[in-house]
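Board notes, transcribed. Complex of a protein with methionine sulfoxide.
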Amino acid sequence: MNKKEKYEALLPRLEALMEGEQDWTAAMANFAAEVHETFGFFWTGFYRVTGGLLLLGPFQGPVACTRIKYGRGVCGTAWKEKVTQVVPDVHLFPGHIACSSLSESEIVVPVFDDRNEVVAVLDIDSREKNTFDETDRVYLERAVKFLPWASSEAVRERD
Ligand code: SME
């Protein structure tokens, strides 16, 4: 299967996994696991916006940085700009936060609530350069919309 076909098969699985799940941790944990297993990425996980920072959430892969400031690194930039960051070579991204020296490329997708506020980011890292492109951006932006708080009351109770 090529990348597009993998995403086409992945999206319904993610939708089914998220259906009826209102708990953040449970939802993010299974979401990260499903994406990670499908592609065999180096690191797949979430940072949640909490207490004015991005705080490490459920993930698959090696130990990672726990807190990221607004506007810092790829994750903090995605939060600030409210735009997906596709980074073909992390060494060329100004301010990139190297949680692991093995990460070579990265994509970070903001997760929005129904007020268009960023509530989390999905961060995926690859051991190779140029792993992520428009296909990843389009499908992952669709995928994060399945997360339960994207349009739920849960988001108002988050802090
Ligand atoms: N590289 C990210 C930090 C998170 S780790 O890759 C898991 C960044 O620059 O925001």
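Residues 3-158 form a domain with the Beta-Lactamase fold (CATH 3.30.450.40). The longest helix spans residues 3-18.
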